[in-house]
Write a structure and sequence with these properties.
- By secondary structure, the chain is mainly α.
- The protein folds into two domains: 48 residues, no CATH class; 63 residues, no CATH class.
- It is built from five helices and no strands.
Length: 130
């Protein structure tokens, strides 16, 4: 079943709705404990995958070169904690995304090897069906 999110996956296991679930390790190790939603040790980690890459930002090939260059520059040079802090967009803790992400960086296909590993291990139909 698709629980709806990392927290929901852990809570579905905790309530007995599921025997196992996938979630960020911080959900089990700290976040839901700090929220009082689960108790320390209530959920056991049985396997940890390699990094699961987040959703990429992609630019259409058919955009004009100057537009692609401007978008790439904006994401790689301005959509990050350092730029946002230096330019007064945030102060103190400046988190981007679900985890403590710094910002956007160029990546290659190998970043998605963790997703492929999960697909290999689970044989889940969502890995092979369009």
């Amino acid at each position: 079943m698709f629980a709806g999110g990392h927290d929901a996956s852990v809570l579905a296991v905790a309530s007995g709705q599921c025997d196992a679930g996938f979630a960020y390790d911080t959900m089990v190790d700290s976040q839901l404990i700090e929220q009082g939603s689960i108790q320390p040790g209530q959920i056991a980690t049985v396997w940890k995958s390699e990094t699961i890459a987040g959703s990429p930002v992609a630019i259409a090939d058919d955009l004009p070169a100057d537009v692609k260059r401007k978008l790439t520059t904006a994401f790689q040079e301005k959509a990050n904690q350092d730029y946002l802090k230096a330019n007064g967009f945030c102060s103190g803790e400046c988190t981007l995304g679900d985890e403590d992400s710094w910002g956007y960086r160029p990546v290659d296909d190998a970043l998605y090897d963790g997703v492929r590993e999960v697909c290999d291990v689970t044989k889940n139909k969502s890995c092979t069906e369009a």
